[in-house]
């Protein structure tokens, strides 16, 4: 693992967390109707809008964003980055596991996008568990 890959992984996770978290927390009904955006709408098929659940989801994603931003600031801290990766991995594995069991309600395009996006987040989380390599002579990892 090197610091550039860590920055990329943490950056992707923080963007995901801020995008989902801010939307769900500050506009829960719109989030439920239109998530993930880009002309797609996946949540209404899972049940009716629940403002409490949406806002709790947003708060959880914003908390993950805070943790990830702290890790991004200290990207060379193996322990902090690995803890961040482990926290994201628990969430992403459980999230992926739920959704792959409920793909039947979606068309093929949405099934593929669900599996690809959620499995990518699992992979990114796993990559954060890999410690930085040794420091080279030029001071890079």
Give an overview of the whole structure:
- The protein has 141 residues and is mostly helical.
- The chain has one domain (3-127).
- It has 5 helices and 2 strands; from the N terminus they run H-H-E-E-H-H-H.
- It has helices spanning 3-26, 28-34, 51-73, 78-100, 108-127, and strands at 36-37, 40-41.
- It has a two-stranded antiparallel sheet.
- Strand 1 and strand 2 form a beta hairpin.
- Helix 1 (3-26) packs antiparallel against helix 3.
- It is elongated and about 55 Å long.
Characteristic terms for this protein:
membrane; mainly alpha; single chain; transmembrane helix; two-stranded antiparallel ribbon; 141 residues
Number of domains: 1
Tally of helical segments: 5
> β content, as a range?
under 5%
The number of strands is 2
Short characterization:
By secondary structure, this protein is mainly alpha-helical. The chain has helices at 3-26, 28-34, 51-73, 78-100, 108-127, and strands at residues 36-37, 40-41. It contains 5 helices and 2 strands.
Strand-helix topology:
Layout: H1 3-26, H2 28-34, E1 36-37, E2 40-41, H3 51-73, H4 78-100, H5 108-127
Antiparallel strand pairs: 1-2
Keywords: Membrane, Transmembrane, Transmembrane helix
Transmembrane segments: 53-72, 79-100, 112-132
